Amino acid sequence: MELRKKTKAKKARRERAHRRIRGSVNGTAARPRLAVFKSLKYIYAQVIDDRAGVTLASASSLEPSFRKGSTAGSNKEAAKLVGAAVAERALGKGVKQVVFDRGGYVYHGRIKELAEAAREKGLDF
Question: What is the value of pTM for the model shown?
């Protein structure tokens, strides 16, 4: 029972942080938002224009092309692949600059690897 309370508290902390971040981070057509979500099994990234309400590019470790190369969809290697893929797809749509929305997660581990891989591929944030 104690573990369940800690898990709920951790989730609530992340959700509060996410709400704070979203108060200042807003994606536009000129500079869309790179939003990241991670679960225990997968990691997801989307480039979003909030004003138009449109997702411009997305990638996740759930996609079949990522699942062939890696056994786990939730490790740092998968995060690197997702970051590189979302950057390539965004650049293909003409998006070069984004605002990074870490989704309330600490900038460490999988989140950091995804961001660095996106930067290496040419996204500016």
Answer: 0.88
